[in-house]
Amino acid sequence: MKNDFAFQWHITDECDQRCKHCYIFSGEGCQDLKSMTWEQMQEIVANCEDFCAVYHRAPYFYITGGDPILHPDFWRLMKLLRSKEIPFAILGNPFHLNDQVCRELKWYGCQKYQLSLDGLRETHDWFRKPGSFDCTLEKIGCINRAGIRSVVMTTVSATNRMEVPGILDAAVAAGANIFAFARYVPTGGEVDAGMTPQEYRELLAVCDRKIKAYEAAGCDTYFNRKDHLWTLYEYETGAFQIPEDAENGMIYGGCNCGNCHITIASNGDVMACRRVAGSRVGNIFEDRLADVWVCEMERFRQYDKFEKCAKCELKPWCRGCPAVANGTNGSFYAADPQCWKVVP
After folding, report:
1. Selection from 204, 136, 216, 132 nearest residue 170 by Cα
2. What is the model's pTM?
3. Least crowded by CB within 10 Å, which of 127, 202, 203, 321?
4. If 0-12 CB within 10 Å is exposed, 13-18 middle and 19+ buried, where does residue 72 land?
């Protein structure tokens, strides 16, 4: 297990976008926008600190929403995290950022600020709202100037698959420190996610060539190969090799669900993964996280139940994306629908 433990914490549902692939507003949309009280947020920090003390881990918060900066006690929370020297990142929108706001975030201890680009201008603004593409690229500069790591994240679906290489170029041109993409998880059928395995492999191949060209040119952007199917791709191309000293039965990589992260929703529900529907394992206002971790979370660590991956030599390092499998086929342990590997 990693030393850091990641808590993805949704402090509010309030948002000034209504993205077509948002979990909160999927399907018919969220009818009851929730925000945590200041007392609840203090309680959550204490519960997370208790968890980390029990398991000898260091807390790391990914503060998100909605747009977390819209929470009335957002800056109060920043002050609390600074007083406890707890590092954090923000996953939010660009609209309320400027140089002064970013400098204040840096002072409170913000290490990364993640923005989304889900297409080139026309597609991204259709997914999110008019003007957000240009605003996102502009605010990367504010984040960088403050000394915070700027992260650009793309959610890939059949709708924007062909634009991903161009999005990568746009992120590099804007000076993003980190670029990554992950696949859309079906929630209500509102966005077509129907990529074939071969289409997705070809996308990885195109991006791999582009990334290597940027790296050879000395590009400062770090390309985070976030999707676990990168492991399969690099195994086939020789960039990844199974270590000779790998221990049988050990899990070395792949999905970190049940390993080093959990999600805390705006209503206090604790989820194994925000992207996995039905992954609620407790409620942080009713349960001790340290107990939930060794009880309810165990059903996400049964690696031999993976229908396809359990028979694959890459099981300890890959396993695809169980969230995409769950959203597509209704089972956490189903085969990843974009995995192209033939397993006997």
Report:
1. 136
2. 0.93
3. 202
4. exposed
Task: Report the distance separating Cα 67 and Cα 213, nearest Å.
Answer: 35
> 62: which 2 tokens?
């990914």
In the block, residue with structure tokens 């195994």: 235
pLDDT band at 80 (very low <50, low <70, confident <90, very high): very high
Residues 6 or more apart in contact with residue 46 via CB below 8 angstroms: none
State how far the Cα of 236 lies from the Cα of 230, in Å rounded to an integer. Answer: 10
The length of the chain is 344
- Cα separations in angstroms, 39 against 35, 76, 292: 12, 11, 22
Residue 17: what pLDDT? 62
Residue type, 103: R
Separation CA 273–CA 261 (nearest Å): 8
**Minimal CA–CA distance to 288: which of 105, 54, 3, 23?**
54
Check residue 97 and give its pLDDT. 97
> Mean pLDDT in the chain?
92
- Token pair 């028979």 is found at 311
7-16: buried (b, 16+ CB within 10 Å) or exposed (e) per residue?
Answer: bbbbbbbbbe
Q: If DSSP codes are grouped into helix, strand and coil, which group holds residue 60?
A: strand
Closest of 28, 334, 30 to residue 189, by C-alpha: 28
pLDDT at position 29 over 50: no
